Amino acid sequence: MTSVSFAGPGDEPIVLDVTTPAAQVRVPTTRRYLMCPPAYFTVEYAINPWMDPTQPISTSLAVEQWTALKETYERLGHRVETIEPQPGLPDMVFSANSGTVIDGQVLGSRFRAPQRAAEADHFRRWFLANGYRDVVMPERTNEAEGDFTWTGRYLLAGTGFRTDPLAHSEAQEALGVPVISLQLTDPRYYHLDVALFVLADDLIAYYPDAFSPGSRRVLRRLFPNAILATAEDAACLGLNAVSDGRHVILPVEATALADQVAQHGFEPVFVDISELRKSGGGPKCCTMELRD
């Protein structure tokens, strides 16, 4: 066993004890992300169990945490595009919910909650203004990368709380990729991206108790070597993480998950998303990947 030190969000060292086989060499790939500054972030309604409008919110702290996340991506060599935030849309910071992009084709979103409905058209206009022509707006409720996770081979598609199951076939037609439907059962993990994330083409991490028994069997069949998160790591939104194939950006509280990630040859990179988590979001929620 080897002690490995990683930088935390304030550059303080976080030490994990890991055993990493020498053969496991993970190679990062440069990514392009779309993010939205949380200039109007607040919690003024409750559309998931994490949101409590009676609790104090610091918009300035949310901006600070979001900026640190953006700068982390840029420090790792990734390109970050931004979209202009809009007043009256406090959850627009969670850009992952507004589009799924694979091979330059875009499937937009249709939100279940009326409070977020207007976000979809702002992102549609951004795509068109930035050279995307294959933009399909869905007929069925579809909260984009909140419930659609691209593995490089399959589009894992969540349902149960937000995305209409009929949106899964709509995504297959629009994006031309095979879709695997997964049933979410715990309202705390209302989107797939708070219950599962992709580390590399051959590996995912997920919280089994967030899924139906049949979906757990599907995941075991597809990913027999998957990392299984603890209840504690799921509860801090540790699975709302972003991987570039080597670096894994995840909440600073998710130490057990980080330990497992490191054992598989990845490098955990910690960020503080405590303020953004008050709305039920984390690193991935703030990050739409533009796969051109």
TrEMBL record:
<keyword id="KW-0378">Hydrolase</keyword>
<dbReference type="GO" id="GO:0019546">
    <property type="term" value="P:L-arginine deiminase pathway"/>
</dbReference>
<protein>
    <submittedName>
        <fullName>N-dimethylarginine dimethylaminohydrolase</fullName>
    </submittedName>
</protein>
<dbReference type="Pfam" id="PF19420">
    <property type="entry name" value="DDAH_eukar"/>
</dbReference>
<dbReference type="GO" id="GO:0016990">
    <property type="term" value="F:arginine deiminase activity"/>
</dbReference>
